[in-house]
Design a protein that fits this description.
Layout lengths: L6 E3 L6 E3 L25 E5 L8 E6 L10 E5 L7 H9 L8 E3 L5 H4 L1 H6 L5 E6 L1 H13 L8 E5 L5 H5 L12 H9 L2 E14 L10 E5 L2 E5 H13 L9 H18 L9 E5 L2 E3 L6 E5 L10 H4 L16 E6 L2 H8 L6 E6 L2 E5 L3 E5 L2 E5 L2 E15 L6
Parallel strand pairs: 5-6, 5-7, 7-8
Antiparallel strand pairs: 1-2, 3-4, 9-10, 9-20, 11-14, 11-18, 12-13, 12-17, 14-15, 15-16, 17-20, 18-19
Length: about 400
């Protein structure tokens, strides 16, 4: 047989046909099994961004094709995330969906990506985020600030190392091997709609001479912590942002975390944390034992899959935990060595209580993190209160 074109594949329905059979098929594409997730090309109006050095298309208008149960899917990822796994996600989904539905966070931020929801309201748009917990929190917070109605349900392709929310919602601990887009789309079609509590974290810092700085507001979906685990995360992030960080594999990142955790066994930078802060749960002051970390939990997964609240037992406290009940769980960690024991199930954390409002008064600066994003927090007041619930999709075909 002479070399040449052997068959054709439709870029929308993915059907493949041999050249000899081409005259026998229908001339109109039905968009295949994922038709209800695809925005057909005649429904989109785009415009080129003026004055941009690079040519980017901006979404101007989208119209409903009138298909029954049409719920378009928008994919959001960063091509630089997950050791370039993000680039693979973008490339593969552009083969199945309209390319304008697949958005690179390296080029456009979440508010721009979420314009789909504004243009199609009141039609529901589903959002697929490929990334870690920090990226997911970024998208969820952007959705809240845009006051979208209806707010888009979120689903996940986990990239990176932690991925605690992805584990809880059944989307896996990490994306391994070849990305099977058709299986991901089938899982999304069969997913169950649920809700995730959204929490407001207000930070009021005080500096020299007792002067108060303007309050900062963050939003939390997984957990926040003050102490040794935040110190380990902060050391890792500083290393990752340095010019010497050139090898970003998942195994290498876990090795870095191990090194920084071992370092804290020796240096114990967060020793006597209980003397550096006061903890209040629903207005009641909590007497603290000797600790190096306090963790405020919204979901039953911390530190890449550890169920802190579930592994500790105290008959005076409610044993169950839910991510949509408007209640937070608060636990303590004794040390970096204790943290390592928790990772392998050899110990239990200290249950400090459950509350609808958590307040921490920090007397000295200490490392802090919210959903895996760490920084050095100055003395001040921290208050966590319930805001509302955001829609999420739970994978019913897999759980971790």
């Amino acid at each position: 047989m002479e070399p040449g074109l052997v068959d054709f594949q439709c870029c929308w329905c993915q059907k493949t046909v041999h050249t000899e059979c081409l005259p026998l098929i229908e001339k109109f594409c039905d968009f295949g099994p994922f038709r209800n997730m695809i925005v057909p090309p005649w429904c989109v109006q785009v415009a080129r961004r003026k004055g941009a050095l690079q040519k980017h298309l901006l979404l101007r208008a989208v119209k409903d094709p009138g298909w029954d149960k049409w719920t378009p899917l928008v994919v959001i990822a960063n091509k630089k995330s997950g050791n370039t796994d993000g680039a693979l996600v973008l490339s593969e989904f552009r083969k199945y969906l309209n390319p304008v539905q697949v958005i690179d966070l390296d080029e456009r931020k979440p508010p721009a990506a979420l314009q789909w929801c504004v243009l199609l309201a009141p039609k529901i748009v589903q959002i697929l985020v490929a990334g870690g917990d920090g990226t997911i929190s970024w998208v969820l917070t952007s959705s809240h600030k845009l006051d979208l109605d209806p707010e888009p349900p979120l689903t996940i392709i986990p990239l990176g190392t932690g991925n605690d929310l992805s584990r809880v919602l059944g989307w896996g601990k990490h994306s391994s091997g070849e990305l099977q887009v058709d299986q991901v789309l089938r899982d999304i079609k069969g997913a169950r709609l649920s809700e995730l509590d959204r929490w407001r974290v207000e930070l009021t810092s005080t500096r020299h001479l007792g002067l108060k700085l303007p309050s900062k507001v963050y939003y939390m979906y997984n957990y926040l912590s003050i102490g040794v685990d935040a110190q380990v995360a902060l050391s890792f992030h500083k290393t990752r942002d340095s010019i010497f960080y050139v090898y970003g594999s998942r195994v290498f990142n876990k090795l870095l975390y191990l090194c920084f955790g071992t370092q804290q066994v020796v240096t114990a930078d967060c020793k006597n944390l209980e003397r550096r802060l006061d903890l209040y749960l629903d207005g009641q002051h909590i007497d603290l034992p000797e600790l190096e970390s306090i963790v405020v939990l919204n979901i039953p997964s911390w530190g890449a899959g550890v169920n802190l609240w579930g592994m500790s037992g105290d008959g005076s406290l409610r044993s169950s935990q839910s991510y949509h009940d408007g209640i937070l769980e608060v636990v303590g960690i004794y040390s970096s060595f204790h943290m390592a024991q928790l990772q392998v199930g050899l110990s239990c954390p200290v249950r400090l209580g459950q509350a609808k409002v958590v307040e921490i008064r920090l007397k000295e600066k200490a490392p802090m993190q919210i959903d895996g994003e760490p920084w050095e927090q100055h003395p001040g007041k921290l208050k966590v209160t319930f805001v509302n619930r955001c829609p999420v999709l739970v994978n019913q075909n897999r759980s971790d």
